[in-house]
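Data availability (excerpt). The following record was deposited with the supplementary files.
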Amino acid sequence: MANPSKIFGSRILIVDDQQANAQVLEVLLQRAGYLYVTSTLDPKAVCALHLEHGFDLILLDLLMPDMDGFQVMEALHRMEPDRAPSIFVITAQPEHKLRAMQQGAKDFISKPFDHAEVLIRVHYVLEARLLDREARNCGARLEKAVLERTAELRRSEEMFRELAANIPEALWIRDIDRQTVEFVNPAWSKLSGLQVAPGTPLEAVRPAIHPDDLIWISHERRKTPSAQPSNEYRIVRPDGTVRWVQARSFPIANPSGKAPWIVEIIEDVTLRREAQRQLVHLARHDPLTGLANRTFLYESLGEALARAQADTAVVSLLLLDIDHFKNVNDTLGHIAGDALLREFAARLIACVRPGDTVGRLGGDEFAMVVTTPADTFGVPFVAARIRDALRTPLALDGHELLVTASIGIAGYPADAPDSETLVRCADAALYDAKAAGRNTSRCYSPEMTARALKKTDIESALRAAHDRGEFVLHYQPKLGVEKGELTGVEALIRWNRPGHGLVLPGQFVPALEEMGLIVPVGAWVVDTACRQIRAWSQAGLGDIQVAVNVSSRQMREEGFVVQVTDTMRSHRVDPRFLEFEIAEGTFMAHGESADASLRKLKSLGASISIDDFGTGYSNLAYLQRFQVDALKIDIVFIRDVMSNPDAAAITIAIINMAHSLRLKVVAEGVETVEQLEFLRLHGCDEVQGYFLSLPLSAEALSTWLRERLVHDARAGLPPRGDRQGAMHG
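Predicted structure:
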């Protein structure tokens, strides 16, 4: 394995005429730890930049004006035919990938970017390049040492043997005229498992070569090399184990003056090839379930359609969602949720034939590509087998869960002429299956209008919800990590929809955004939060700082700050006790309008925090530009902080970076004591999450606050309002 510091010290260039794309990749790589990452929007400048900096990896967009990615690759090859950098092509067009590979591209990155996939691919190609460079350097040093010392070694065979015995690579010398082995070093014997004496016929060592490689390797060895060829082949040890090796050969003088001897230096590259195999697998498979990922599944779908055209077969696409999967995560936690996804994937695989493809599209979304003869009706039976397979409960964390799935089915050529349309049709059928009560399957028909009807229904209900007072706020406490004191609460909107109960924001806030209702509803949130701050204060529960989420649309609304100012003044709320949480993407997408609004809010004395930090277009420049007070680490990192080293590293990096900028750090989504202790150990300032408290109604939180006041009084602590004032003063 290559030294990580060398990998992260690699020089990387991003070439994309779209600044947003270049910035996404640049920040992603910098946050991952790469030290030398730069970008350019001008493809014509690539050769000059490479000549100046000597990049190890170039992430190259294929479709650019003036000079496309293929022309850039050709220019680089002409400039350095023997020492070109590794090139990743960036494309959303599958048909470009083969051509790019033929022109020397090492790999590709599909649009839109999958951050984890980008980091994995970049890491492995840089590691492979570094290992290859080190191997070549090592081999070159060995070859040079052998060539320079040949004359000396003739006079001192003992010195030669000592040298050969202490190099890690296997080395042997053969006489191509006599077809004998003249020398092997201990590393060769250890690698091959054969003990060979000088003068042994080459026939005696041929069994060490894998039978599938023997013919062409024997042909290569009959040549007298004028250059220094490199071959990879397999060695079979006496115990049957197989090792991949890379062999480099070169001639040396024969002491008898006849045809030269051939020195072969052999390196065991089994681990490297396995790493390459894993890289290919990771690029095409979901790491949690091992199923095909979205990219591989759509490639398989396209290939299946192409074969079906020739064979007059039927290709069916099944889209599946696990019913009420979110309830598992909410009640049993994400570890149990991941176990459920793995078991669900295993049961899906058992329902199809080896030639079919099963994939995970993300979350609890799965898909199947099934090919059947044109005169059969096998796909509905596949759906029935899936439901039968799910009748047996799943054992998760001591619980038995009966899992069901909704399935949408569409077929080629009856329902759609191409893969894109087929996906849309299957998605419409899946939506219909969900609307029918879940735990069912639906085959696509043109009459399916459930999606539009449901959307219309939700929009109609939301328009009435604000006027009818159906929205309510719940409040989730935020606690200081060191002392456990209450530092504030976050206001979270709920929709008390008649006949549906409390609806969580993820199910209706996007619709509010789309309809433009987020502005009046957002104003109601600020007004309700201010009213509640005043009510808690008058009830003797102290001055509670309340954080409210503000959408990008609110920030762009003219008069937003005036409305907030009037609301605080009407409820006589000190601005210190109102905090505004802004999504990270708002800063990047609406910088100027956000800047103006936030500066006005800061001038009033309100606090500003960045919500879900670390998952957007993170740009450290805006942290100081917008004068923010706090960062909230996204829940996706906190959730995996104890099981994923990358999530832990990102969390630590965010904490350290924030503190270096004198910013407070809040972690949301804390669900376990282990997560809390991890955050305490690494200096996180505040936390919130189900481990500490669920979001509570205003009445429930009042009771919670009174109980804390009683507890503090018994413990001899000063009134919480005094501590709060000191904290925010």
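Summary of structural features: The chain has four domains: 4-113, 163-274, 285-448, 458-728.
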